[in-house]
Specification:
It is a single chain. Helix 3 packs across helix 4. This protein is of the alpha+beta class and 347 residues long. The chain has 13 helices and 18 strands. It has a five-stranded mixed beta sheet with strand order 3-2-1-9-10, sandwiched between helices. A five-stranded mixed beta sheet has the order 13-12-11-17-18, sandwiched between helices. It has a three-stranded antiparallel beta sheet with strand order 5-4-6. Strand 12 and strand 13 form a beta hairpin. The chain folds into two domains: 157 residues, 2-Layer Sandwich (Nucleotidyltransferase, domain 5), CATH 3.30.420; 165 residues, Nucleotidyltransferase, domain 5 (2-Layer Sandwich), CATH 3.30.420.40.
Amino acid sequence: MTNLLTRSFWSNLSNSDLAIDLGTASVLVHTRQAGRIVIYEPSIVALNTRTHEVEAVGDEAKQLMGRTPQGVQTIRPMKDGMIYEVDAAEKMLAAFIKRARPKRSFARTRIVVSVPPRAHQVARRAMKQVCYDAKAGEVFLVDQTMVAAMGAGLATNEKRGCMIVDVGGGTTDVAVISFNGKVFADSITIAGDEMDEAILNYIREKYNVLISEVAAEEVKWGLGSAYPSDKVRTMTISGRDQFEGLPKTLTLNDGEIREAMAEPVNAIVELVRKALQETPPQLAADLIDRGICLTGGGSKIQGLDIRLSKETHLPCYRAENPETAVVRGTAMLLEDIPFLRRIQVMD
């Protein structure tokens, strides 16, 4: 009976563990208790400017963007995959952790958070401190590309090389992995957000129409592409004429949005080419069979896999549910704490 109570005690402790992908565009939280992702919402928080209290987070906060009443401000506290507004990030994360934690848990939560490879020491410490301020008991930071590869099902523990390209909201990270270590890794602060911004600028310059960030994101998913397709797609959006100040409706097609997104897409292609040029020949040969695996929400841009395959002459494919690969890989580490301690990113 005593052993049963002891097992139950430690089970309650471990069940409160959380794996978090604290991204520029979205926050994903996986709980060990549920064994699944319980939160997948935008990285946005709405704060009361007088009391500094949280009015809304995630989906609810995104619905307020561009519609906030006086006294309320919507903030995206993450930029380029790292914390940009510390106070807002702390409040947002605390709200998500409170929602995700088991209701009857009496343990201080163990949290594993993925961080971009380019995260500097100050950024890593800020990320950790935000988690501790949100009442975490123990915090681990892990490399985003490594856990993305694990979540995508790549055999990272083998001596043969594998390549992962993780296209998020704020960064694109590339790594060649062998034997649980990175042989090559690089990152650029060009990803989904820069695609949105490129669309905003294109529409403003070509049509003299101002559209919202939310509308630009809708255009990206509705018409965005990295490689031409046989079918022409169109989409109608509304904005404001920047000279007359009046509402205006436009009909756009996929060809012009592909043109708008050309610069950020080209930068991602060049990063992958650089990775291949700097990969040791023996591991590069492994990629002929294994190909390039794409993860991250930005990898879902139509034709990106085809474009990279054409440019590199290697097979290129998206992981299953690429937008959740990072948090799924992070959650896997909660099942092997000794391995987690061994590969964690230190301050």
